[in-house]
Amino acid sequence: MKSNYMKCDREAVSRMKCTWASHTRGLRAVKYACLAALLFFCGAAANAQTFRGTILGTVTDSSGAAVADATVTVKNINTGLVRATQTSVDGSYTVTELPIGTYTVTISQAGFQTSVTSDVAVNVAGERRVDVALKPGQVSE
Predict the structure, then answer these.
(1) Rounded mean pLDDT for each run of 10 residues along the chain, 141 residues in total
(2) Cα 87 vs. chain centroid, distance in angstroms?
């Protein structure tokens, strides 16, 4: 009888281990699923939180043709931050990651008058479009 008691005990322990192992596997799966969901939602929230904006546009001449390689300078009138870029072959430009504020956009190219657009407000995660048609003439300062 003693051996049966021990045998039953071992069987009971084995059943408990099997039950406990399957239970912990289930908990582990739930834990990983929760972790994956948390990372997904935190990552999405982190991408949505930006405190910067973009100024973009297209530079053309008076006939509507694209002006390539024009210099585009944006200056924050409050902080003095200056960022510059060149227009692409199709006349487009983009200045990203600008802190929120008010900017002056200056566009110049040899053979054209310089264009100055003031009071361009950049808001959180916003895009402000400044399209310019340059007029032929002397480069002005």
Answers:
(1) 52 56 63 70 58 96 96 97 98 97 97 97 95 84 49
(2) 21
